[in-house]
Amino acid sequence: MKPTTTKALPCAVFGHNYVKSKTNIDHTIEMKCSHCNTVVVTDHHGNFENNTIANKQISDTLQELYRLTKRFSKTKAAS
User: In 3D, which of 11, 18, 70 has the Cα closest to residue 39?
Assistant: First the structure.
């Protein structure tokens, strides 16, 4: 990982210093790095996800597209 600014240098060397910024309605916690302002969200199991809203929408759309292609390929093969 190459830091783009000198402010992100401690994150590249020592890792991020996450601070809890807010708790969402679905009991996930949004955390922000105090040095480089990187935002991560924890899931229900405590794992970090780097999905921002835009990335989550893209990911959901790709998953739906994959499900649709699998469903239509099964019906095509069955006929």
Answer: 18
CA separation for the pair 21, 30 (Å, rounded): 6
Strand extents, DSSP E, the chain:
18-23, 29-33, 39-42, 48-49
What amino acid occupies position 9?
Answer: L
Euclidean distance between CA atoms 40 and 65, whole angstroms: 25
Q: Which helix or strand (DSSP H or E) is residue 77 part of?
A: helix 53-78
Give this prediction's pTM.
Answer: 0.50
d(CA 23, CA 44): 12
Provide the residue count of the chain: 79
What residues in the chain have per-residue pLDDT under 70? 1-7, 51-56, 74-79
57-68 residue pLDDT tens:
777 888 888 888
